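Researcher: Can you fold this with iron/sulfur cluster in place?
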Amino acid sequence: MVLNRMRSLTDIFFSTVSAMGRWASGKSMWPLSCGLSCCAIEMMHAAASRVDLNRYGCLFRASPKQADLMIIAGTVTKKMLPQLLTLYDQMLFPKYVIAMGGCAINGGLYSESESVVSNVGDYIRIDAIVPGCPPPPERLAMAILELQAKVIKGCQTS
Ligand code: SF4
C-alpha cells in the first residue's frame, strides 16, 4: 500500500518534471540564423517587427551550439549540403527542422537541376514543412507554433 502510494507520487513527480521540460523546450525554440536563398528573406521578415517571432520565444542565434531549430530556408545545393549537415550535427538536443519553401521541400523550381538536392529529408529528419514559393512569413510563424504545440504535447514530431 505504502509502496504503491510512493510509486504513484514518484510517477506524478516525474511526469510533472517531464511536462515542464517539454513546455520549456517548446516555448524556447531558438532557430539558427542560416538562410540559403530567397526564402531566407521571408525568414528574416518573420523575425522583424510585423510577425516578431521573439514573441513566441524564438530568438535567432548565430551559433549552432546555441540553437535547437534549423529552418532550411531556400535551395539546398549539393555543394552546401555538407555544411548544412555539419551545422545540424552541432546543434543542441532535442533539435527540430523546418523545411521552408518548395526548393527546400522537394527542389522546387530546381528539382531537375544536377546541382540541387531534391529531397533534403533523405539527409535530415524534417519535423515540419512550410510550402510556397516563397511562403509568407506568417506561414512560417504558424509552422513554428504548430511545432511548439506538438513538442509541448509530447507528440512524435515526424
Ligand atoms: S521556394 Fe521560391 S522563394 Fe524559396 S528559395 Fe525556392 S525559388 Fe526562392
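Model: Folded with iron/sulfur cluster in place. The longest strand covers residues 69-73.
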